[in-house]
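Researcher: I'd like a candidate sequence for this fold, 288 residues long. If you have to choose between options at a position, lean toward the conservative one.
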């Protein structure tokens, strides 16, 4: 018996499926070209410049105590700030979505201030407030606690600039989450804590991880709002972006490229890990 295989019987790969809109080839070409010029070529130039000193030279720069201290400070404070923003950003988003109160729209608009405010202005404002003679810094100075010009000041600055990423990523998901699900869980006898972890957090978790990633990535590369409150003491309160600038001012372009490449490599690995966890979370929730 002769079997005829029709086109409908053969499942075509997704990339061979014709699009409703024309111009896929042109759009793909523009996309690849723009991505190459804006992202890939600068990163490739950075890697090539850093590789000029070879692996022994790269390891020598990496093993410098000043470089190690700056990288630890940048990644450590960025991670702690992103974790803090993940908690308080979720709370802020929850309040803005679930409650109606006077001044709510003003509070909602104030969340975006770190986006619109120049980083230098933010750094000067934070330094003025948390300095030993500032409004808040003077209160802690009486107890011998110094905030500004220490790693603690860096942490506060990174929390300030990273909070909007969490709020604006989680807020739309909470708006789409039906409040009736929480009422149903309460009627079925679930406690408030169990309702939060079983009803609210699962659908919000992918967006929360995405916001965490954005806040963490922004904090790693933050410069303007940090240098005014950091104190910039080598091996104590000197962040990695500042170390890159210092090496550039010393005409050590290769050394600056090495530090930048190390930050790029670590950031890329962390992004892959977080994206993997985000994908696992989405699959478990059935959002594929």
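Model: Candidate sequence:
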């Amino acid at each position: 018996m002769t079997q005829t295989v029709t086109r409908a019987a053969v499942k075509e790969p997704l990339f061979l499926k014709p699009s409703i809109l024309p111009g896929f080839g042109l759009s793909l070409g523009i996309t690849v070209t723009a991505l190459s010029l804006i992202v890939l070529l600068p990163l490739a130039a950075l890697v090539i410049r850093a590789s000029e000193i070879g692996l022994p030279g790269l390891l020598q720069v990496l093993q410098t105590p000043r470089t190690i201290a700056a990288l630890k400070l940048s990644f450590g404070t960025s991670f702690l700030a992103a974790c803090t923003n993940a908690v308080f950003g979720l709370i802020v988003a929850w309040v803005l979505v679930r409650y109606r109160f006077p001044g709510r729209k003003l509070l909602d608009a104030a969340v975006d201030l770190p986006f619109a405010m120049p980083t230098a202005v933010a750094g000067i404002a934070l330094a003025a407030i948390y300095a030993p003679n500032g409004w808040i810094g003077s209160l802690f100075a009486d107890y011998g606690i110094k905030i500004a010009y220490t790693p603690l000041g860096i942490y506060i600055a990174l929390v300030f600039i990273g909070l909007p990423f969490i709020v604006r990523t989680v807020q739309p998901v909470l708006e789409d989450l039906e409040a009736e699900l929480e009422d149903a869980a309460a009627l079925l006898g679930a406690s408030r804590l169990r309702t939060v972890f079983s009803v609210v957090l699962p659908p919000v978790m992918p967006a929360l991880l995405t916001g965490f990633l954005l806040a963490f990535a922004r904090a790693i590369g933050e410069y303007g709002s940090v240098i005014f409150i950091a104190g910039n003491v080598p091996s104590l309160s000197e962040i990695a972006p500042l170390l890159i600038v210092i090496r550039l001012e010393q005409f050590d372009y290769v050394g600056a490229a090495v530090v930048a490449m190390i930050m790029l490599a670590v950031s890329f690995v962390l992004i892959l890990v977080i994206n993997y966890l985000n994908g696992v979370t989405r699959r478990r929730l059935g959002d594929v």
